[in-house]
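Hi W., the flavin-adenine dinucleotide complex you wanted:
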Amino acid sequence: MPSHDVLIIGAGLAGQRAALEAAQAGASVAILSKVHPVRSHSVAAAGGINAAVKVTDSWESHAYDTVKGSDFLGDQDAIEVMCREAPGEVLHLEHIGVTFHRDETGQMDARAFGGASAKRTFYVADITGQAILHVLYEQLTKYSDQIDKYEEWFSTSLILNEDGSCGGCIARDIRTGQMEVFNAKSTILANGGAGQIFKPTTNALICTADGMAQAYDIGAELMDMEMIQYHPTCLVSNGFLITEGARGEGAHLINGNGERFMSKYAPNKLELASRDVVSRAEQTEINEGRGAGPNKDGIYLDITVVPKKRVHEALREIVNIGKDFSGVDITKEPILIRPGQHYIMGGVRTNVDGQVPNVPGLYAAGEVACVSVHGGNRLGANSLLDTLIFGKRSGAHAAARASDIPMPQAPTSRLEVDRKKLEKIISRERTGRRISEIKDELGTTMNKNCAVYRTEENLQEQLEIVRRLKEEAKTAAIDDKGTIFNQDVLGALELEYMMKTAETIVLGAIERKESRGAQSRADFPDRDDEKFLKHFTFTESDSGPVLGEAPITFTKWEPEVRSY
Ligand SMILES: Cc1cc2nc3c(=O)[nH]c(=O)nc-3n(C[C@H](O)[C@H](O)[C@H](O)COP(=O)(O)OP(=O)(O)OC[C@H]3O[C@@H](n4cnc5c(N)ncnc54)[C@H](O)[C@@H]3O)c2cc1C
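Structure:
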């Protein structure tokens, strides 16, 4: 049985940063990932990472922008930690080899991003996530005597020790089908987000809420789940992301009447208002008949106003995406986009050291977690920062905890439970619906009923759909009966994780009868600070999700009217 001081589940930016920190603190580390680490969704991050590095900027200004972006739902103590530590972290990345773009004077260059009052988004062309992820992966090789990598291992559940603490996980070697108990003193969840609950989404196929559902299963709270970010610029054809960097470099949004409509919605920031504001503006234009394109269901993103040389230098990936997926040369003509699911602000509730309050020994960092630094709406380029700052802090805290306690003997009974569960799925008769069909129905209905604008009626309809699909998922048929690379059986588990998580998203959206950040209730169009200046949480029980509340932490900034 593999035993480690610190077990990290997930090897995107949050997981790798945690591994580096824990190893540097002297811990023995296991890092486990269901795909090769550099194929984690972090690799797709394009636009950049925020930090008040420049002397003309300040962490307080970054923090205020983040608080305002969150629509005052973010916890200000956590936001302060993130923004204060950001410059040090970005410089650390630069020192270990991330080739950030430099301006003509040789200084690290920053681009403008939505909701920010200064240019503070540092970038490597439009492959920032890839650049950072590869450098971190290189760094981990320095500690190969301390860090065991389990690549293409799938965690199937977390282990709860008899004293209520977390003792590691059960995982399956995807290559062979072999199952193992991973025993650990501290366990860090870094499983990423849940975008596959929606269709379309900008998220990779692996973003299936595994960590959220597994933590929820052993008593962790899921917080702010109703807060789902729709990114303003996703291709109409397939939901692919066109980075906010495009608007950061000056691109315009134009409706079907040829109008640059953002002046109506955000007279000061225009296209660079926060994402919830821009997505709502686009959706309103489309809903009111001013959409662009043959079906009037899109908006034009006009990048031709950005100098061609700059596009090729700073936005070269989206030049390719435009050509390959829309047949459009973005340097010559506008491209059709619309809001699309991109990010989940909610997740496993943690404190600023990544600790999950009610499960000792369990930590969470990155998109799987809710610290909560993003509150009702995440600012672009604050997520890479979140993964690194709280990945690092979790790694440090988890290693320190491990140095103080003996190795727990995790009960191995869970191994049999999971093994039998998988065998049962594999031996299912082919009578139920296919996994892909159920997943498709979940995604398309979530995107219809729980998207940019929500109403009681749509949400109630969606709750019924999710609950029906949750039952159907229990008998979903799988074709692959083998053990080697059986992705089919893992797909059945992922479907189960997504159903559980989706239920809390819809319930949270029903419960929050106001409009704040990404939660826009057409039937409750105003923010209601008197009733809803609080987080909603969910814990699991035999009779279903149990709603709870958590206070928001305020430090310096009182709620005020939010305009851009
Ligand atoms: C297209 C796109 C562009 C983006 N651009 C930006 C940007 O420019 N700036 C910004 O700040 N943010 C951006 N974001 C958001 C940001 O990239 C993500 O929120 C962040 O990278 C998430 O990192 P993570 O480490 O939490 O998870 P991920 O990178 O998603 O990694 C999750 C890891 O968990 C593993 N895993 C999951 N489940 C299991 C399991 N059951 N067993 C074993 N392993 C498991 C996976 O294999 C993977 O290694 C973007 C997101 C997308 C989708």
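The first strand starts at residue 3 and ends at 9.

W.
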